[in-house]
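Dear Dr. L.,

I hope this message finds you well. Following up on our conversation about the binding site, I have prepared a predicted three-dimensional model of the protein together with adenosine-5'-diphosphate-glucose. For your records, I am including the exact sequence and ligand specification that went into the calculation, followed by the structure tokens. Please feel free to forward this to your student if that is useful.
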Amino acid sequence: MSRLIVVSNRVSAPKAMGAKGAQGGLAVALSAALGDYGGIWFGWSGQETDTFTGHLDMQRNQGVTTATIDLEPQDVDEYYNGYANRTLWPLFHYRIDLTEYDRNFGEGYERVNARFADSVGPLIEPGDLVWIQDYHLLPLASLLRGKGLKNRIGLFLHTPWPPTRLLVTLPFHERLVTSMLACDLIGFQTSEWLESFLHYIDKELGLPVSPDGEIEYEGRTIQARAFPIGIDYADFTAGAKSPEAEASYQKLRQSTRGRKVLIGVDRLDYSKGLGERLDSFGRFLTDNPEMAKDVVLLQIAPPSRGDVASYQQIREDLERKAGHINGAHADVAWVPIRYVNRGYPRTELAGFYRAADIGLVTPLRDGMNLVAKEYVAAQNPEDPGVLILSRFAGAALQMPDAVLVNPMSSEEVSIAIKYALDMSKEERIERHTKLLASVRDSNVENWTRDFIADLSGRTPAPDLI
Ligand code: ADQ
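The resulting structure of the complex is given below.
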């Protein structure tokens, strides 16, 4: 069997579930695949060094080998905080108003991708499968090919792929996309992002594209396909029944004293629509004064990418907005919004989800969104909560039984909250049963298995992982 080489911006070595900083579902699934196939997980250590040496820090934890490199501060500024998170991230989330086009960012991005290729290249043996993750490393495959690598290379993009009309605002977009065609397999979260990509390939690059996503380029065939990612269903549902989950369930229930609880859990990121969500909740309170004192919104939003100015801005905006809504509606015994700026272990999160009557998942644009799936998986099937989900999350395509909303319309979201609060138990169970089946079946183990099977040109074998 081929070995697997996973390359991502950061690596996450296996840790126990519930441990502080334990692995998320994706890391668990990639670790499991690496455990099965053998191989290496390569990426940036998260550390900086004055001068790049290419020194590899190799470690082995619970059957998984990781190899990491340190980067120079200028690399981190230009590649990670710059091109990845100030150019590609906003552009791929349709936010050209926030997209920064800076030549230094582009150069830093190419330099770090070249450093990745120089460092991981020698670790790759003939026959290894190479699986590159995400928007940080789009040109990596072509740089590896430049070193003579003949291996099968796959790339999976966790973000949306923007419409062609937005993508062409990026200087050198042809070069970036053409470099991706050095892969054998390119995976997207949903058919929507896949179609946008193929539209670009057809209209901008003028390459032949077959109806099932095969692209012809320089005598090679590249397969593009949708692989919707899921959660680690078995692990997550087991965690939701743990004593830690029960304790956080009780804590939230008791402290809200019989009120209906709405929950939002998101990285603090403008793509998640947090400001619009607070506005919608504020509107609900105003439009439904008779229900207002019976609801509480718990918004958990740990800071992310704090070195990027737009992220500092969003934090300030949200604090102001939450304060404003609380100021307008609170009384001595009740505050409508609990806004918490920290992360929680996954088991505790599962307890919070279970205690919440409504999961409010309203990103303005999201590749998939795993919080929607975690919320569904954590519910009590005999008395489940209601998922309100943005139609602009990739997850909406797989979860039509959620209450789907346009997150830009505070009126629509406010009506959806009222509808969810009034929903009969029968309808809640009916919707939840269908949602749960989809979350269970499209879990992250199946996602890993399907991608690797396609990459290696095999039919998926369910017992491989
Ligand atoms: P993210 O943008 O990070 O992921 P999402 O899919 O929602 O978005 O995943 C977030 C994860 O972080 C969830 O597992 C959630 O539980 C966890 N998390 C969030 N807040 C937390 C907190 N306070 N404490 C602990 N954990 C917290 C990117 C893409 C998504 C895509 C995923 C996977 O942007 O669209 O679904 O990758 O491909």
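In brief: The first strand starts at residue 4 and ends at 10.

With kind regards,
A. P.
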